[in-house]
Amino acid sequence: MNECIQHMIDWIEGKLQGEFSLDELANHMGYSPYYCSFKFHQTTGISIRRYILLRRLYLSTEDLVMNRKIIDIAIDYNYSSQEAYSRAFKSVFGVSPRDFQRHEMPVQSIAKLMIHPRKDGDSMNTRREKEVVHLQSEKSELFDQDVLNILNGEVMYEEFKSKKLMGNSDYAPFNEAMCVHETTIPIFDSTFIETRALGHHVSIESYTSKVMQPLKNLNQKNYNYIVLWFGEDMFCQMNLLTVLAYLEQSDYKGTVYLNSFREDEFKVTQTELALGNYYSVYEDVLVDHKKPKHEVLPVMYQAIKLYLEMQTENNPVTKYIARNKQLSQSELLKRLFEVFPMIGYGDTQYIELINKAR
What we know:
- This protein has about 350 residues and is an alpha/beta fold.
- About 55% of the residues lie in helices and about 10% in strands.
- Helix 10 (about 190-200) packs across helix 11 (about 205-210), helix 13 crosses helix 14 (about 280-285) and helix 13 (about 235-250) packs across helix 15 (about 300-310).
- The two termini are about 25 Å apart.
């Protein structure tokens, strides 16, 4: 069946520009329209029409970067009007196509679905090193001693620090999973630490050692630049939001850069960030679990939508688990990683959901 679904995906990809017909897909596959829709959703966790919408809009960002006329882009991707395309674009990315074109911003990569994609870990280190070399040619000042690189997690931290990928600058990991469990304000005070430790089922001492101690330089040194290395997925973006909110809380006066990247290819998009509203967004989203009052980058907007959706009992992940409870835990975990890459959960978060469902 996986080969059949991949065949559907390959066929759909060829129809992203132009009109899509479910009946035509069904005729091509030799199944009924209902069966194609049902099996696609069962395997991928997303409907065919939603997949086409997201892929078309993501591919259109490349056209916007090339400064093509918005009306021409809308026609290419089978929208009835520029207004219809703009509405759909803003509903997914949180900004209009015009604003995106004026101020190129990072978005979550909505790549072509691959059922059981090939592993390509052997070249990941090479890609990272090449990206860093490119960044150094663009902004050499970010490789000096007055720079702190905050990296999403211990593994990334160890690699960057051991290889000194960012030169003589300092490195610190953010070892958290802010997309799960309750949190508080202010950030990183005693109540925050107690609340987060309780959610993770660890002692305060253990939490302090793992999360707080590695960040000690954030408070002990004055840095002219802070570079935040966080992926596009929801897991990373909620961690990013927490760090940005803390920088505002601590009245940081230096320059902040976001190096946003895709985990599977490590292609970095570097964006200078203006502090000012992230503390409010943190409170709205992570404390109160509601939509933020302020605009954020498209990549964070997409992640916030996913985060709020994951707070509901009948979210796409729990529904997928319920439909596939017959699978072993190891096989179900493998499927969840493949089907929901933009959530970014690890084994621990998925196993908790699997156990709840069973």
